[in-house]
Amino acid sequence: MIDRIRFVLHETWESLLRNATMQAAAISTACIALILLGGAGMALYKLDAAASALPSQFEAEVFLKMTATREQALQLKAELESWQAVAQATLTPREVAWEEQKQKLAADVNLADIPNPLPDKLTVRVRDPEQLPAVAERIQQSPLVDEVIDSRAELQTVLSLSRLVRWIGLGAGGLLLLAALILIYNTVRLTIFSRQREVRVMALVGATLRSIRLPFILEGMTQGLVGGALAATLTLLAAALLSDYMTEQWAFLRDLPPGLPPLVVLVGLPTLGALMGGLCAWWATLRYVRI
Amino acid sequence: MAVELKQVSVAYGEQGALRRVNLRVERGEFVFLVGATGAGKSTLFKLLYGERRPTEGEVWVLGQPVHRLKPRELPFLRRQMGIVPQDYPLLPRKTVWENIAYGLRAIGYNESAVRQRVAQVLALVGLNEQARQLPSQLSGGEAQRAAIARAIANNPPLLIADEPTANLDPDTSWEIIELLLRINLRGATVIVSTHNRTIVDRACQRVVAMDRGQILSDVPRGGYPMELDRLYASVLL
After folding, report:
1. What's the DSSP call for residue B6?
2. Nearest 10 degrees: CA dihedral of B229, B233, B234, B237?
3. Which of A182, A204, A230, B92 is the most buried (most CB within 10 A)?
4. Which domains does chain A show, CATH number per domain?
5. Is there a cis peptide before residue A93, judged by omega within 30 degrees of 0?
6. How far is A183 from chain B, CA to nearest CA, in Å?
7. Does B129 touch chain A (CB under 8 A)?
8. Which pLDDT value is given to residue A253?
9. pLDDT confidence of B227, banded at 50, 70, 90?
């Protein structure tokens, strides 16, 4: 058994060393495909996280009628919080709101002598942003409520954007993965053609299909692994450089949720590369290695 | 019975197809298969080691129905056969020793058995001194002997050699046939295809003549010379 394993590993190693140009082509192909895939994955992860985070910042502002008492306001708050769809309801008393307003405008206008025109306000945050319009509609029916502002149009835009980002991510990722698979498959196919003599000799002396195919599969996995490791390094390097530059340019990017952890990229891309390489090689050997 | 073909046909194109071929080769026999290019000799050999499937008929080799074997079963049949096909390439980057060892390692021999068997076959084919040479450093005859050495390294009971004397001068051709006769004397069944009448005449073995996918005649060992003259007139240029 040990001799057999040694033979298979030796065949793999010899082939890797022998076809240097072919190996460089295969590894760079895997590397480029995985950089595209990894880069797109990281960017889309961040975009998706950002898109998912934005709707939670949307809330409904409920302005009560001037006639509503504090007790009624607190009752309404308690009622809203008992609703399944509502995550939180915060009461801003009219006097607090007025104080804030006065301080904000203090430099321009003196509001000290003006009676407080503001009503009590409830700020309602929902569990699922998609439910915000329905919740706002329901709150509006209360006799205590004067007006509900729920940023419905902006919310719809962000939700559409979020869905679009996910679909683009799935589509682009799928296409890149397919392109990478085809490129690696093609390289392994060329490797098989370049080693037809060995394949024929092994077949004629009675080597099993499995032992003929295994070195190619290991070779494909090695190409994918090395390509993936290179891709992970380059992707993280590029991400670090770009991230610094972009946050300098656009400050709001600092508030976005963090991207993929580097360890996921460092382990994920080489693993994905090895799996892709192995899969493509196995696929190519099924078609082109026969006895 | 080493080989038996019953009503075997292979249909593809004009050249190399076989039509209702019947052939029996007993264990321990030495058989020449003669015929012009495209007569079907290589196709017949490919049927024996399962590289081609018959369109109809049965192919039995060493008691196994090759026409029915699944691809995963073929390697185990081939381990009982030494195959020297016409396009048999020695691996150019490996020495003679490594070429022979390669075949043994590929079928799971351990290193000590590989060393032992390679030394034995190198001595048998007379290539001890060339063991460390690359194929490009060998003469045509030496390369052919190395290919035969690899084929017999597993000590198979059946050896099939497709045109082993092609492109060799008469003396070297005869050396190769002598080597095959020695292997036959050690008990292996040997089937050799050739165009070379001189060596067929000189070896005095059974001769099966093929033409356009059919067996024209089957001259038993010692059936000389008139039958062979007739046979050559009909199938060889």
Report:
1. E
2. 130
3. A204
4. 2-54+157-288 (no CATH), 59-150 (3.30.70.3040)
5. no
6. 28
7. no
8. 62
9. low
Euclidean distance between CA atoms B104 and B122, whole angstroms: 14
The tokens for A36 are: 């595209």
CA torsion, ordered A218, A224, A228, A231, to nearest 10 deg: 150
- CB-CB contact of B198 with B185 (8 Å): no
Both tokens of residue B214?
């059919």
In total, chain B counts a number of residues equal to 237
Q: Where does the pLDDT of residue A257 fall: very low under 50, low under 70, confident under 90, or very high at 90 and above?
A: low
Give mean pLDDT, residues A153-165: 73
* A199 inside 8 A of chain B by CB: no
Domains assigned to chain B: 1-80+157-237 (3.40.50.300), 88-155 (no CATH)
What is the model's pLDDT at position B237?
Answer: 43
CB-based contact B130:B102 (threshold 8 Å): no
Give which of A121, A144, A142, A116 is closest to A63, Cα–Cα.
A121
Coil, strand, or helix at residue B179?
Answer: helix
> Which amino acid is it at A114?
I
Q: What is the DSSP letter of A115?
A: P
DSSP string computed for B98-162: HHHHHHHHHTT--HHHHHHHHHHHHHHHT-GGGTT--GGGS-HHHHHHHHHHHHHTT--SEEEEE
Q: Could you write out the DSSP letters of every residue in A212-263?
A: HHHHHHHHHHHHHHHHHHHHHHHHHHHHHHHHHHHHHH-GGGGGSPP---HH
When pLDDT is cut at 50, 70 and 90, the band that residue B9 belongs to is very high
Residue B106 to residue A200, Cβ atoms within 8 A: no
